[in-house]
Amino acid sequence: MEHPNNKGRWPWPTAVLVVLLTLPALWPLARPGYWRSDDGLIHLFRLMALRQAVEAGNWYPRLFPEFAFEYGFAVFHYYAPLTYYVGLLLTWAGAGDIAAMKGAFGLSLVASALAMWWLARDVWADEAAGLMAALIYTYLPYHLADVYRRGALAESWAFVWWPLVMWGVWRGRRVPVVVGLAALVLTHNLSALLFAPVLAVWWGTVVWARRPPGAPLWPHVWDFGRRVIADVALAALLSAFYWLPVLLETTWVLLAGDVGGQGFLRHLYPWSELISRTFVYQYVPEQAVAAEHPLSWVHLALLLMLVPVWWWHRRRRGRWPSAPLVALLAGLLFLLTDMSKPVWTLIAVPFGMIQYPWRWLGPIVLLTALLSGPAVMLAHGRRARAGVVLGALVVLAGSSLPRLSTETMTVEVGRYPEAMWAEDFRLRQIGATWTAEYLPRWVREERWAVPLPVQRPEVGGGLPAERVRLVRATPWWYELDVELRAPAPLRLHQFYVPAWQAWIDGQPVSTWPSTSLGLVTTAVPPGRHRVTFAWRATRPVAVGIGLTAVGVGLVLVGVARRWPGVGSRRVWRAGVVGTLMITVVMAAGRVHPSPKPERFTPAGAAVGDLAWLVGWRQVPVAPKSGQSLSITLYWLSRRPTPMNYKVFVHLTGPDGGRPLAQSDGDPGGGYTPTSRWVAGELVPDRHRLDVPDDLPPGDYLLWAGLYDFSTGERLPVEGRQDGRVFLGTVVIRPSE
């Protein structure tokens, strides 16, 4: 079964040809702007959040504190993170956020085509069959819909790992199997679940095909099975830092409701509604049938060709057990129909988690491409086969590409996260998701109502504090110096999950959710205290990191054992050292200081009896004329109020006179009105000041305060008559 021209050299000319054949599928990405899709904007926001976190020194931010109107979503605690690091690498290479996200999608198409070509050429021992399989894999409509209609970044990268793992099994190469499986879990856990039956059948097929002639079957199966178990176990160890917390801590959020859910039953249709009405494929929502992603005519034709192609190949090239794969393909197609409801009731756990039966189209495309590759072998001669491949490109691209939407939109990436909050508010969503799956279960408020004012504020007395000062503020760590006359709660403007922990004077204290928004809360006794809130690794996270470190150590041991001249003592020493290094790096979560330090200034000014302004920060530290200046104020609420006061931030000259730049509006970008504040809540409040282009370089003064919009009256500030809190000096640099 080995490729006849495989002599250990990478076939660069053919690889380049595969890339060239995928270029038509990339053309929508070449358009300026960002294309409209279901989830593409969500992934862009997550990439921007990751980039900012890494710039702040947090290399693996499980929590995005600015999501959900700055109440925080633990996105990477649950959602596989690997694909976003592809986009991050592209930003480091100089790409902007939009270009990096488009590049991540484009690379998934190219890499998946290469992976399928590499698998099919080896399985069918024919270069043209590999090219044909790569074309089919790239241009079947569901794959393109994943990228351009759904904007499903993680699923588009699952198409890369599936063929890589299958090739590793076919060749008996453990590295691609282990790395591919670990990468698949870290890319999209649902795609790993979908791939499980395919991989099981593929392993069985390869065992049968690789059995030496006349040799007993069961010893061969046992030997192969041990390697399979070892590979899966090692892949599980390498990815344990991600999947173990997901497995054990999903009950924190609404994601747990997907386990055993029955929503998939609404997306099963009769055969007549699963086939496209036209040759040129019509994508959602113009598909003209009930199914969201029907089979195209080309896909249907390929399926009908499988049996004769398999029969021809069996007669001409010898016995090869394709029948199990064809049977599996038929079974997966059956799961798309309404006739399969009895089967779905049996497999609801765990496969109900995929939510939509049409997600099986991913493995269906995988099997269709691999099994259809030999069709090109019916042609005789290189020229004839080249003509078949080019004809296939014309038919596939001509039927799949014309109706792809090329509509673009403008995204204000320079105004993140406010642009994300505005999109959430427009869609009545929260946290840049469609189903609020990361909303903690302690939140009792309706998700669409979270950013809205309330008529009846939370019941509670005032905060009995004499002095309050915010000493340190990062997205994952807050420290306050407080002096209380009586015991009182302190709260973060963050949804509670158990990873948020607290200390008072260095001693750990309990935290819990309070109010209808389930805010992180701790009780502080009377007197002077240093109160610390921090996001910390839970026990499943720590155990997962340890298991991953062990997996890395085992990989290093395996590599060292194969290295010429390395003794056994050095082998195990490499494994131990590697395990310790990975443990330290992953547990610390940061390997260098922030390259873009943010200036934080403590404060402690009382503004009326409503709040203390306890600190502020600015980004960038020294803006240029004409640049946007981001100011984050930190308010500590003293009491609940039914009023919705406005916040002003003014930049003035050294005389403190009229504002030269200003921002006036509701706190929290307009999505955290003061009627939402509760006593003891620390509220971050972002504002943007557009520095005038003609503002001369120099030192300027920054002021802030609260006022009643209906009267224009400012709340009084202790020690001042004008109702302004002096924040500090801002240095404006020349624009050039």
Structural write-up:
The protein has helices at residues 12-26, 40-55, 67-70, 75-78, 82-92, 97-123, 127-139, 141-148, 153-171, 174-187, 189-210, 217-238, 240-249, 297-317, 323-334, 341-351, 361-372, 382-400, 418-427, 539-562, 568-588; strands at 34-35, 408-409, 465-474, 477-484, 488-495, 500-504, 507-509, 512-514, 519-524, 527-535, 599-607, 611-619, 628-637, 646-652, 661-665, 681-690, 698-707, 725-732. By secondary structure, it is α+β, with helices and mostly antiparallel strands. Mean pLDDT is 88; it is low at 1-8 and 588-597. The protein has three domains: 34-210 and 253-408, no CATH class; 465-535, Immunoglobulin-like (Sandwich), CATH 2.60.40; 599-732, Immunoglobulin-like (Sandwich), CATH 2.60.40.770. Strands 8-9-5-16-13-12-11 form a seven-stranded mixed beta sheet, with no helix packed on it. A hairpin with a 2-residue loop joins β3 and β4. 45% of the residues are buried.
Count of alpha/pi helices:
21
User: Any idea what the shape is?
Assistant: elongated
Give the strand tally: 18
Main beta sheet: strand number and arrangement? 7 strands, mixed
Sheet with the most strands: spatial strand order: 8-9-5-16-13-12-11
The separation of the N and C termini measures 65 Å
Strand content: 15-25%
Radius of gyration: 29 Å
Provide the residue-averaged pLDDT. Answer: 88
SSE class: alpha+beta
Helix content: 40-55%
Contiguous low-pLDDT stretches (5 residues minimum) are 1-8, 588-597
Q: Count structural domains.
A: 3
